[in-house]
Structures are given as C-alpha cells and as structure tokens.
Specification:
4 helices; 183 residues; Alpha-Beta Plaits; 4-stranded antiparallel β-sheet; alpha+beta
C-alpha cells in the first residue's frame, strides 16, 4: 500500500493543501470563506481537529494540523471536505450575487462526471497532499510558506494584513479560529 499522501502517523503534525478543482477562484467572497471558517471551527470543537496554522487563498487553503488523541486526521479531513463541498456548492447556487454561477456549476459538474468517486459535482481536488512536519526545520519552513502565501501572490505587503490567515495569531493577536501555536 502506498504511503504517498497519507497521514500515516496518527500523532503527527501535517502540512495540508486543499485546492478547488481546476484551481477555480471561489474564495473571493466572504460568505464562502466563512463556510470554511465555520467548518474548521466545528471540526476543532466537535471532531478533534487540532489546528496550528491556516490560510485561505482564492482557490486553495493550507493548514498545519494534527488530530486529538484517539482521532484520525484523515477522517476529520474527509468529513471536512465532504461537508464544505456540499455547503459551498449550495451557497454558490443560491447566491443571487454570484455572477459566475453557471460557469462554476459547469466546472464542478464536468469534474464530477470524470471522477467515479462523485455522484454529480466535485468541489475539491481529490487529496490534500499531507506532509508530516517531523522536524523543527520543516515546521518553520511550512509555517513561513503558509503565512507568506498571500504576500507572494501580491495580495498584501505583510502576512498579518491578510484577513483569512493565522499570521496575526503568531504576532500576538487573536485570530478568527482557536489555534494551538507551534514554535
């Protein structure tokens, strides 16, 4: 059995990337970002997700996360992706302000039809590319990469200026989600 892209260490801390199909920009609207935030908070409070850092970009998100004792991160992520996909697809469909509704629906449906794991639509790319952060070097590298993602993309000048990120938490502020800081 392949161990590539698996959370094989139940006690490990992982860097995770979740991208929308076709890298389509969905998280350009606050209401869609809020669905992700609410879902992460639920997973923290009810499912045993331990969140260490996060960022939401227009077409993907990065997390540094682990699971509480007795929980499996792979199961938490599976449930998170399934739930958010349903909520986000519904929100897009029901949003009267969504000018890209037909185009987005076509993308999600065409990707869903090509994937035998889906019934109708596919929102997220299939896996989350987990990388176990088993050294301080890797932990610091991925934490910096995650927080500097919006800067590198040219959206902000400083990591703490990006609303949908835990960068402020690491500078002593109180962010949007409860975290267990690392480093």
């Amino acid at each position: 059995m392949s161990t590539k892209y698996k959370t094989s260490n139940p006690e490990g801390i992982y860097f995770l990337s979740m991208a929308t199909v076709e890298w389509v920009d969905v998280f350009t609207r606050r209401e869609y970002c809020q669905i992700v935030l609410d879902s992460l908070k639920f997973c923290i409070e009810q499912k045993g997700l331990v969140l260490h850092a996060w960022v939401i970009m227009p077409n993907h998100l990065h997390l540094i996360a682990s699971a509480a004792e007795g929980k499996l991160l792979s199961h938490i992520l599976r449930d998170f992706k399934k739930f958010t996909a349903i909520k986000l697809l519904t929100a897009i469909q029901e949003n009267p302000q969504e000018s890209r509704k037909n185009w987005l629906q076509w993308i999600f449906e065409s990707n869903g039809k090509r994937n035998p794991n889906n019934d109708h639509q596919q929102f997220w790319q299939q896996n989350s590319h987990p990388i176990e952060l088993d050294s301080n070097f890797l932990m610091e590298q991925k934490l910096e990469y995650l927080h500097h993602n919006p800067v590198k993309a040219g959206f902000v000048e400083e990591p703490t200026h990006w609303r949908y990120s835990s960068a402020g938490d690491y500078e002593g502020g109180k962010g949007l989600l409860p975290l267990v800081l690392i480093g």
